Amino acid sequence: MNTIPTDQLLNQLNWRYATKQFDPQRKISLPDWTALEESLVLTPSSFGLQPWKFVVVKDAALRERLVPVSWGQRQVADASHLVVFAIKRDLKEQDIDAFLNRITVVRGVSRESLGGYREMMVGSLLQGRDAGGRRNWAANQAYIALGNFLTSAALLGIDACPLEGIEAAKYDEIIGLGAQGLATVVVAAAAAKRAPLEVLAAPPREGAPLRSE
Amino acid sequence: MNTIPTDQLLNQLNWRYATKQFDPQRKISLPDWTALEESLVLTPSSFGLQPWKFVVVKDAALRERLVPVSWGQRQVADASHLVVFAIKRDLKEQDIDAFLNRITVVRGVSRESLGGYREMMVGSLLQGRDAGGRRNWAANQAYIALGNFLTSAALLGIDACPLEGIEAAKYDEIIGLGAQGLATVVVAAAAAKRAPLEVLAAPPREGAPLRSE
After folding, report:
1. Are A207 and B139 within 8 A, CB to CB?
2. pTM for the whole thing?
3. Residue B56 falls inside a structural domain
């Protein structure tokens, strides 16, 4: 265990803000980006099912095509890196089985020992929800990943900006996700540490207090 | 800026796992918990609207009453701290106006200068979505907070466990959220650093790789 002091955590979370302009020159270093990708992969999800696919869009021409379907937001093309948070459009029993098969390999347990776990997942996710409910559940998980991504980036001093204002169906088409049963839910643009002038532009906070019971 | 090295981030994200058993004796220290609460408050949200309420349930009797509506999961009562992630059940124009009024105070800008921003929020969140869509949007934001919370806790070496398997409507009733127009979406239990034996119980990872385009 190699924890950080509380003031370092809060310092970086206060430093973070949703960067609106990205300088195409400020590339994230390979080690930093590799770590951020790895942090995404380590995101927890309900049942551990990870009903998502994180797509890093690197092709410059592809990214330019995403600008008009992102209400013209240039971050999509100008940021150093762009991650599309996509989900499985319709989770099926075979997804659950593929997940369980992976567990048997990684943890070295028998498929039979996971029978109860399978039943619980099928009951909660497939029988207990309609297609829309399953998509909402999967989208929620993708947003855990987004939260983890934004905090991880802040701790590394990487600027990031989540973008909800996108035409998700057009993203699916342009990146070719639809044909694979995937659906875009949200996007994040990221760039290397911001320039000094932008630091001054970061707005003050207005977080609402918690409530105790 | 006071960033951390990439290996420290990954070390703590690898250390994190969804703790299943909590020892009621392992209380989180006041400075650690205060920092975790503050990290929650700093969670980014779409438009900065923060359509959530984080409720820290401290009353022991209240927490015991939550166990049976959490499929008997003892974490709800045994963990050092319990946070309920609730959302506004039906976001209204007055919520947007209250948010804008707060901005005028915190940032010292005029209400008039925020007119375009208001229009954008009303268009996207109220006119562009039905009640269910607004709830899904708000729930997504709460899950950003959950992701941020879990990562922040991991960095401080605090054990945490998200719980989706709860009867949300019963939570609303028991904690008294429904009457305030709030709705529970998810819960997280947290406790001080885990005992050495539990470290051995943390399962190996099976994260799926990212895809590049």
Report:
1. no
2. 0.94
3. yes
